[in-house]
């Protein structure tokens, strides 16, 4: 995991070593799927003025060759938000690879115009 860059930001939240290590452990799964990930940015935010329904918001941004992947989740528990965020990012990565694979296998007919 040392060769990959992970940026973790906390808004209205103190980032402890336990939170940072939990994020790194969960993101390790994503790096196993794709070696072309350049950087992952994670924003953890605690909304103090909101009700307890969605007090923690996690935003993930994967920088990869091509369009970047951006996902956001909100729940009442920080670790639950992180789990849902990683699941969504994982689904997006798998969908992207599946679409790329379909595009490679799809053959297009070539029309030859006689001049």
Structural account:
With 115 residues, the chain is an alpha+beta fold. It has a single domain (5-105), classed as Ribosome hibernation promotion factor-like (Double Stranded RNA Binding Domain, 2-Layer Sandwich), CATH 3.30.160. The chain contains two helices and four strands. The protein has helices at residues 17-33, 78-105; strands spanning 5-11, 37-46, 56-64, 69-75. Strands 1-2-3-4 form a four-stranded mixed β-sheet, with helices on one face. Strand 1, helix 1 and strand 2 (37-46) form a beta-alpha-beta unit. Helix 1 (17-33) runs parallel beside helix 2 (78-105). The protein is elongated. The model has no long low-confidence stretch (mean pLDDT 85).
Strand share of the residues? Answer: 25-35%
Find the CATH superfamily.
Ribosome hibernation promotion factor-like
- Give me the CATH architecture, please: 2-Layer Sandwich
Percent helix:
25-40%
| CATH class placement | Alpha Beta
> What is the general shape?
elongated
Low-confidence stretches: none
Number of helices: 2
- On the 0 to 100 scale, the average pLDDT is 85
CATH topology: Double Stranded RNA Binding Domain
In total, how many domains does the architecture comprise? 1
State the end-to-end distance.
Answer: 58 Å
